Queue: 2 jobs
Job 1
Amino acid sequence: MAEPIYEVLARSAFVSVTATLIAAVIGIGLGTVLALARLPGRRLMTAVVNTGMAVPTVVVGLVVALLLWRSGPLGDLGLIYTVQGMIVAQVLIATPLITGITMAAMQLLPAALPDQLRALGANRAQLVVRMWIEARVPLLAAAMAGFGHAISEVGAATIVGGNIHRHTQVMTTAIVEHVGRGEFAPALFYGAILVTLAFLVNGLLASVQHRGASWART
Amino acid sequence: MGANLILRQVRQIRGGYEILRVDDLDVCDGEHVSVLGPNGAGKTTMLRLLAGVDRPASGTVTLDGVDTTRGGVELRRQVAYATQQPGLLSTSVRRNVELPLRWRKVPRRERARVATAALERLRVAHLADRRAHELSGGEQQRVNLARALALDPSVLLLDEPAAGLDAQTRSAFFADLEQALADRTATVVQVSHRAEEALRFADRVVVLVDGRVHQVGAPDALTLRPADASVAALVGYDNLVDATVRPDGSVLVGGAPTGLVHRGPVGAATVAVFGCGVRLVDADRTGLSVRVTRVTPGPGYRVVALEGAVSLLAHLPIGCPAPLPGDTARVVFESALSAVLPRAAEFPALQSSAVAIRSAIPASR
């Protein structure tokens, strides 16, 4: 039985938004640490992040599937072919992108800014929060890029989620399935929804960004 | 209340090079000290150490007896450091001033009151709701200073506070700064490469050249008795020429008498003379023989370029008859506007500034 479209749409949004939020927390935190802290192994970590940005999503899906497979090291969690498993995969896909853009954003701020904030009496947390506010526009761009990457990927969603109707099917996997059957009309319909959704989310983020700028002005 | 700042055996290293060396320097509670030096002398490096932003490679910097690198954020909050670049945050002017107060948990109403008062004192209260990045350079400098003053710090550190401003704006800025500091008891350390700014309202001036303290003293002492040629050049002497001190004390330049008498070491020396201390006399009188090469107008005087055994610049009051290029004359140096110094090339950089600095600290402080 065909699954109602709104369910597929809601599941897609839930998976990608949740994955983006988790990836943003990890990515912005990690990107900030890599940009500001003088840690041993920082270069290696940066190289790992940069490589992660270029890894095909299907490879990420393969690795996550091997980890979550029933006989795999994390098989006891029972996450293979579940929405939660798909979120894990999408977090791994979006995190390197958000981390990389965050690093670049923090490094593009004036080099003297951290010292300036310290000299004004900021403690570590106040310093980091203020730097995020100063870099709010590229950080929002990082989140947008992460969301776009997550919602548009199909490889990991297929491998980890299995494209199970009423359970793990999302719009991208539905498009692949319909095209495989030669049903182009529903595939195009999902494609249009995806584009519209991406447009709406980006519009929302831009609005938040604008409001953030207005708030900062007052 | 101000605070005592003490530097002991401080060294700072960058890229394998020692960029600052201060053996012994005390800045007393409530004192206004200027650090004067050319670009790259280590002035900002010293200020960053005083602010606790950087840690010295060796030695200690203490604020009221507490090591600035160990005092943490509470110690840093006693210090307000206005950096050379205003570094205003991408928010409103008011929020820029209020934010460091919020970090110090100052209640909202009090923050607004203090910020407004600080902005008014620097004459930028009308800009309070503008975005900081929309302001002109001069306005940003004023907001930067207002932000520092609003913190009512024990120690106020000013790094070239008027950098990038034109002469007229600088003058107005310093007049307002002077007024803003007049009713405060904070210890102030100001850094500048301009003598007129460094000497303007300092109790003492530290002259820093190539990362070394060359002289510490009251503004007048530095002007009248510079320790060496580099200090003389920094405090505004227009002429530095090689000279010889004879056993009878007369000072010769190019073998000709200068009118100066020096009671000090005999032999090679450097004479520093302000432009207004170079006096043109009749050609038949004794003095250094020169030829006028150029006459240009200056503010209230004429700048006369002279060539002889050495090149000299003389400042002649605008009312005096002006010589013409090609005229010959003799010059002598006014002793009150001249200083006889150790020969520049032979003057050793102070290996230890302790004696000079200690002797310059007023006993009453």
Job 2
Amino acid sequence: MGIISKVHPVRSHSNAAAGGINAALNPEDSWESHAFDTVKGSDYLGDQDAIEIMCREAPNEVLHLEHLGVTFHRNEEGKLGTRAFGGASAARTYYVADITGQALLHVLYEQLMKFDTIDRYEEWFTTALVRDDSGRIAGAVTRNMRDGAFELFTAKSVILATGGNGQVFIPTTNALICTGDGIAMAYRAGAPLMDMEMVQYHPTTLAGLGLLITEGARGEGAHLYNAEGERFMEKYAPNKMELASRDVVSRAEQTEIDEGRGFPDGTVALDITVVGRKRIHEALREIVNVGRDFAGTDITREPIHIKPGNHYAMGGIKTDINGQTEVPGLYAAGECACVSVHGGNRLGANSLLDTLIFGRRAGQHAAEQGRGVSMPSPAGSELARERDAISDIVSRDRSGRRLSEIRAELGATMDGKVAVFRDEDRLREALEKVKQLQEEVKTVAVDDRGSVFNQDVLGVLELQFMLDNAECIVMGAIERKESRGAQYRTDYPERNDADWLKHITLTANGDLPEVGFSEVTMTQWEPEERTY
Amino acid sequence: MAENYTLKIRRYNPESGDTAFWHEYGVELDPERSVLDGILQAKDREDASIGIRCSCRAAICGSCAVRINGKTALACNTRISDAADRAGADAPIVVEPMNNMPVLKDLIVDMDAVHWKKVRRVVPWLLPDGPPPEREYIVPAEAMIDVTQSMACIQCGACVGACLSLEVDPEFIGPAALAKAYRFVGDPRDGQTEERLKDLAEDPHGMYDCTHCFACIEVCPKDVAPMSQIMRLRRRATGDYEIKDRNNGYGHEKGFVDIIEKWGTLHEAQLLPRSFGDGSMIKGQTEPGAVKQLVEALPTALRGLKSGKVTVKKALLHPKLPDQDQVRRIFKEIHFKDERLELNMYIVGENSDEEEPAMGEGSQET
């Protein structure tokens, strides 16, 4: 077993999952309540069998992490304490200040150091998945970033845990590494993607840089105001107010901004001062720093200007409840996967949970399956192909556009035309632009011709991955002619269960993906009107 | 409102066969943007071969620690206008790789060879006694908040790059790894507290190798205050477990504190024997091991006599402070407390001043 990562594992973007992890662990709470909130949050596009599994297994997962050493917040009795989070009918979010994801990631890395029989390939960049003649997964081609050497890792199974694709949009809360590599590689290897149009815009991000202000702030009681000093969520979600689900709050903010009630910088205000300074320092320390360092605002004393910003991909590689994709031996878990537990809209503090539950299930399933199959023997031609692709880029003459220009143009296009409010015309324009950029990237020039940490050439591969992601996001958004969850079509403003209560799948097929559909699994919750 | 800045970046390409060299890049950015934004703009517009690890842009992934105008910091949370101010008028912002770690390329250093090796040294995982409970471990809320300060470490290595002790003793376990050690020592769920402390005390490159220079506290972007964590390791080792280390850290600390309690100022002539005698003046002058060390330290004492730093009179009759009673009162106050009070960033928030919300119904902000 080996773990391959293009960054040192503790640099991964799970760090940014600040607010916490949901679990119905309190005796007064129930997994059914957690599951219903998740189903409703998903706008009924989530698969209920998968959601049931996630919510049933959540309490034990949190306890397991606690036993491994995560320094979860305690209540006065010394037991695990909770905070409130959006779209939830009970306070069931367990947390470590506002560094929950970081704490989980670092504790899991501690465990990796403890069990050092697991080989780690840190700063190895995976360029392609490899299948054998039967179509089964056979391994992956990777490049050691330190010296540029290529390696073909042969494996009975490959589990992708490569995260989201937020960099397709600019601005985004996502880290620079979130370029959808795994999603694109699986797609190219023939695995269908699902619900790619479902892109979450987080309600509280900084204008310009796009950095995240955790939902924990609203969980702790912070309010949203427009420029007229009005607590506008009263109009949109009179019961849950600021803690309605994210798609609802983001749309409300965008409406306020679009209708001229925002601030001149295209924002509304998040007032955290109501939380109280001691509690802010104890529970929201990180955003005190973010406010100070990146917005010049002391959040303990004044409101901070925020707006909806790209945050999370609900869609991804289609998997079953064991993380299996439709390519035998290929698994996916976490943000790159679409089980789907998040459907049209993910609830806050469900992403770490999804990653952990289905990551574990994928690992266990792959281990069991692995016993019964022999080690595949890939042809080996992939290695040469990938190596040649790199040398081709490096030796190319400098007639093409700069990588950074194409990347910036892609990001602006997606944020401009495929964001909170969408319509057919602008989506078509976006698709056209993506296709144009896909052509231009073929001649993109690089400055770095070396082998050691050549981030430039890997940036080209990432951009190609991003363009595949972008194409599928736009295709899904064009296809889904209704408004559900994060997909809001101004030309189809209603949810349409009769025609669209189904997943959209996209499979690689030449110039444009082949569109397919798959049923949403229902167990006990029939679709209802969704109000907060 | 974009302004022009000049970044002077130290470049090094191991494949070129050339030594490191400087190159200046002009960038145009809003003053509140970061040095990392500047470097990324230089990459985007001028030379994409500049090597720097970076990812989150928000000081949480810990990738982009470099030296900016000589001071170690995360490039992403150093404002470019601040860096320009510190560089001085018409001087470029100087960006170099961190110290104390081998450079792999440009601003990229070998964290594995130094930082992570040291982290692994402190057995960086929880070692509870026995199997876990059915539910969670029941532990005081304050204890979890307490270790969360070292949990906040993002392993960026800034403190390792800035550590002066590491420059002298590359084997020193160093600030980041020792802060990580406190994360387990301070965790009531860990069952190896004494063993961990003993290990770190007895290692000659362990917790007593820190020289209190504060560099790590100054550069830490997450307020982990590694040196404070090291001091807490020491306090627990001496105060709770009376762990005696190879280089007399225990005796030195005990002797120092006792001297201050008695006289109020440092009694130079007594510090050495007390340090060698586990803090005791009598033991320091009678125990064979201590006497041997004392004899070995004679040249130092003679140098002190010669320079006038120590006189025979001062050595025999060290005066008390005029207000020594006040010093003793402080000691009494501290000894009286049941639990040790620690400064911790997660509990610095002021308690009482609950103010009116900055924005309420009908309030205006334009």
